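To close the chapter, one final illustration. This time we ask the reader to focus less on the individual chains and more on the assembly as a whole: which components sit near each other, and how the overall shape emerges from the parts.
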Amino acid sequence: MEVTLTGTRAAPDHGVSNRTVALRRLARDPGAVAGAVVVLIVAVCAIFAPLIARTDPNLQNLSSTLVPPMWIAGGSGAHPLGTDNLGRDLLARIIWGSRVSAIVGICVVAIGGSIGVTAGLLAGYRRGWVDALIARITDVQLAFPLVLLAVAIVAVVGPGLWTVIAAIGLTSWVQYVRVVRAETLSLREREFIAAAQAAGATSSRIVTRHLLPNVTSVAIVLGTFEIARAVVFESSLSFLGLGVPPTTPSWGGMLADGRQYLDTAWWVALFPGLAIMIAVMGINLLGDGLRDALDPSAR
Amino acid sequence: MAAARRRVHPRLRNVAHLTAFLARRALGALWALIGVEIVVFLILHLTGDPTSVMMPPESTAAELAAFRHAQGFDRPLIVQFASFALSASRGDLGLSLRHQEPAMTLALARLPATALLGSAAFAIVLLVGVPAGVLSALRPRTAIDYAARIVALVGQSAPTYWIGLMLILLFAVLLGWVPASGIGDWRNLVLPAATLGFFSTAKLMRLTRAAMLEVLEADYVRTARAKGLTAWRTVIGHGLRNAWLPIVTQLGVELGALLSGAIITETVFAWPGIGRLAVQAVFERDFPVVEAVVLISATTFVLLNLAVDLLYAVIDPRIRYA
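The assembled structure is written out below.
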């Protein structure tokens, strides 16, 4: 017995909802399943960090600095991935660091997605001067080196988690605009929109009740890739010293710390980088799977 | 009138379309640069008073007032913007607060180093990304294909600066083959260029593979094979030629990514380009220099994209700039 996302029971052979079909496709894609597992692990680490991490990520122990991982001579089971230059446990910091990445990823997508989807829907449905204005603003945004734009915003406003989120969010909306606008341009010519117009539906109703649900799939797929981009972006800003404060464990900040000890304690820089890579790879694989499941023609 | 239109030689008509297209693109580029100026100006005024951003926190009230007056920050905002836009359009962004030299001159002096790094990285993207993507498409589900796909996945997932650190660890610290940082001979260029190009190479490899797989399924490729053309002639003459358009589009996008990536890569490798200058300027609160770097980068990006648009016509003569 199959239960669809909308809660309606699907008939065994026919009447299966699009969402169920998409979920089945997703479940058959080994890459997407692997990606979903990674994303789930990161999410669990982020939510239950205080329960999973055995030690305080900021607890310094100057008598056991730069301890190697437990499988290398000199390592200790108390610090499975070793310690950093201040004797802080790397595993605990990586687990807590997932929290920053998760918050940044979700918030950035919320900011960029809301601005971008709204602008894309307006540009595609209204066309005319609204479309031209949004296109010009998009051109300006695309002309900027995004890292430099974010660096400049953070430098002026001051580093901090929310500044980083705002800076990355404000650079990510443009991706949604292009995709959603193109999708809306095609949808607005379809019969169901003409029917809604003929039935006297207002523009805002057409946009919110008819167009928005039809661009949601493409926005979700884009959103997953944007989460991955945001995670890397945040870690880059933290690496440059413009991200979250040093007291908050973050993968990019840990990498910046490890940079000075590359020749003596390589593990300080290796493990946070691996954490970023695996998390981003998982999100990308899930995004690829979602794209293939929701729109096989885009494969 | 229709008859007169028919009499115009198609080539002349295409030249007219190309000229109109160029004019439109130049106008769009000009607008983008004006928009960039507006954004740069607004960023500096995000906190309301740029003086607090540009002066050290320990400055006295008298010092702040003197600086505010000297920079013209006590004038109405619209007057400040008009003055800024006029100066910026002449390439005059004032003196660097730290070096007391024209900010634009300082930034332009660092441009050749970034251009060298960017060109080397772009060469890697082109010479590794495209052939690897083609090979991967030609030998699907073989060891070559899986290796290329794994490299592409890692390249698109790992942060640029971490790749840089790992390359330093392996090739500079452990093997000692190349220097870890600085600028000098070609050996200094290897690691920064490989780092900067890694992400784009991975992306291009993936795109080339997908484009080639699609083209190789096309009827004309099957016909070419049926005519007895060798596999390589079919791939180069028919496959790659038709897959070029999305690849070149992506290359244009990657040029922008390289400009952005240079900021991080130059910091990791202490490469004296405009990216590193920008980061140093941010930490030193030297905003005239930050503005100069942003304007140079944006102008370069806009011009490179214009060049990519023109390349389309060379690659695919069917494109008419109507």
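The CA atoms of residues 134 and 209 of chain B lie 6 Å apart. The two ends of chain B are 19 Å apart (CA to CA). With these observations in hand, you are ready for the problems at the end of the chapter.
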